[in-house]
Design a protein that fits this description.
By secondary structure, the chain is α+β, with helices and mostly antiparallel strands. The chain has 13 helices and 6 strands. InterPro entries: DUF7089.
């Protein structure tokens, strides 16, 4: 299931700087959540496993079943919305997993995704948004009138935005020490700019669901792209400082405004 990945020179340098003990593996098959039996195979290549658990009381009654399982005692790696590269600290040493779906992507972009994982590991950010919102996830659900799946998607996006506010400070310093990765970071951002700028019109015309728009806008924050309203309010020091409380208040104000417009 897992095969150690051969890393490029820029990625090896980033790992040495940010997360030197991390193991990186290619996976045989794509996944959203790694099946428990396969996840436990990691026990053969790491020193120890320490599954994360969270109180079930943090979740609203209508939370998606997969999220309910995630907060339980099962050894769970990966969740919907995690992307093509997944990392975990539930192993010692930490592990980064690369899904087969990255095949066909430019090598430079894959290198950026791997380096991003090392940076996130170094910053000690939570592994999943439930570790960010904690008991306040129920508060987010209460102000998100689009159903449990939409709430999940928006929560994942808001967590991505908050994390991106921190990681981009590292990315911006790459030009001297990691120029190849800095170039990949900028190229990935450039590819998003036009799509992000069109989001308000796409939402207004019904061409893009609001949760999808939030996901794209929040993903752009790590690339230091200027965001249109209402997403620009997330690209602030206040959000970085106040985290969940700020994100929930943003969601409430945004959905109130959307209802007034409809």
């Amino acid at each position: 299931m897992f095969e150690e990945r051969d890393l490029s020179s820029p990625v090896r340098a980033a790992r040495a700087e940010y997360a030197p003990t991390t193991l990186v593996f290619d996976c045989e098959q794509d996944f959203e959540t790694l099946p428990p039996a396969q996840a436990e195979e990691l026990g053969l290549v790491v020193e120890s496993l320490d599954p994360a658990t969270y109180p079930q009381s943090w979740l609203p009654d209508d939370a998606p079943e997969l999220l309910s399982r995630y907060v339980g005692s099962d050894f769970t790696i990966g969740m919907p919305g995690d992307g093509s590269v997944v990392w975990t600290r539930q192993t010692d040493p930490p592990v980064v997993l690369v899904k087969p779906r990255v095949e066909g992507s430019p090598d430079e972009f894959i290198d950026f995704l791997l380096a991003e994982a090392f940076v996130e590991l170094s910053l000690d950010v939570p592994e999943h948004f439930i570790g960010f919102f904690e008991a306040q996830y129920a508060d987010l659900s209460s102000v998100t009138p689009r159903g449990p799946n939409s709430t999940y998607q928006i929560a994942a996006a808001l967590f991505d935005a908050w994390t991106g506010l921190q990681t981009r400070a590292e990315f911006a310093d790459w030009h001297a020490d990691h120029p190849e990765l800095a170039s990949a970071w900028q190229d990935a951002g450039s590819s998003l700019e036009e799509r992000v700028g069109e989001l308000p019109r796409a939402v207004a015309r019904g061409e893009t669901d609001f949760a999808d728009a939030t996901e794209l806008a929040c993903a752009a924050i790590k690339h230091a792209i200027e965001l249109p309203a209402p997403f620009g309010a997330l690209d602030t020091q206040a959000y970085r400082d106040h985290g969940p409380e700020y994100g929930i208040q943003w969601a409430k104000k945004t959905f109130d405004a959307l209802e007034d417009e409809s």
